[in-house]
Specification:
Helix content: 25-40%
Largest sheet: 5 strands, mixed
Number of helices: 10
Strand content: 25-35%
Shape: globular
Distance between the termini: 17 Å
Structural class: alpha/beta
Number of strands: 13
Bound molecules: acetyl coenzyme *A
Strand order of the largest sheet: 1-7-6-4-5
Number of domains: 2
Length: 323
Amino acid sequence: MIRSVVQGCGAYLPERIVTNDELARKVETSDEWIQQRTGIRQRHIAADGEFTSHLAIKASQRALDHAGIKASDLDLIVLATATPDETFPATATRVQAELGMTRGAAFDVQAVCAGFVYAVSVADSLIKNGVASTALVIGAETFSRILDWNDRGTCVLFGDGAGAIVLKAEQGKGTSADRGILANALHSDGRQHDILYVDGGPSSTRTTGFLRMEGKEVFKHAVVNMAAVVGEVLEKAGLESKDIDWLVPHQANKRIIDGTGRKLGLPAERVVVTVDKHANTSAASIPLALDTAVKDGRIKKGDLLLMEGIGGGLAWGASLVRW
Ligand code: ACO
């Protein structure tokens, strides 16, 4: 059985750090409120002229180096983003050109904060179907460009960044002991549009628009949907929550992350948390957290990882990966 095995990972955060105290000088908020409700202490914000593709390219170069793979070996790029450089073409094609990859296909996937899990699932399917053999999967965002900086209910929650992994087709035995992606589960519920959306777009307003969110409602759905999708993906792989070595969740809010960890019966030290350092970077947050725990030596070859995320749509999903 063909498995999509992770060869390496990389991440990139823009240089500029904006602390909670700095934000408190612009909108009526406080470091205490933000930390208590979300666990966020700071976020990175892209410089003028620094686009989603620029962050994606830097993260991708690091992932390729870590994997020991050349861009010319790639035959697929799937980039998850809700903040593309332009309406079209896909930001992935910019990354393709900049990396010097001249064959195969590059395209974007849009599932907001669930984007990375969606992109992993799409790349895994294309690898298993024989359409591609070596894929770069990226999550990259510049949410600072779609924030209403006067809305304290949303502007304190998000940041910019990018992360990437390299997947390669390898022969597995078809058991849960195989390295690679073991199972994926994806869901969406378009009826929940109004609790998390951007109030602009090329076809509707011809403007970019700003992010609008009913935080409490999103919170409720996140807790319920995460528990369900995690159970589903474990069942698909024939595994149980006690088999999980690391929870690498979407980094939106420390309280949601802690809740999911508790439901799985995982001790806090088995949950990767980076939301304090980069806030919610939407599709970039899972690979940013992953890269941190791989590079500091926590995640080791053979470990079982659960990645999960939920975002606008609502869209949510989970992937189980043997590192
Ligand atoms: N600073 C200070 N006070 C604030 C701030 C702020 N930054 N923002 C809101 N408040 C106030 C509100 O005005 C309200 O005041 P009031 O009681 O006088 O009306 C009070 O704080 C409570 O507001 P709530 O919105 O009820 O606060 P809540 O406890 O729900 O926390 C939060 C808000 C952090 C947004 C929480 O609901 C949450 O984390 N939701 C999940 C959001 C999420 O995960 N989104 C990610 C999905 S990502 C994607 O797809 C893009």
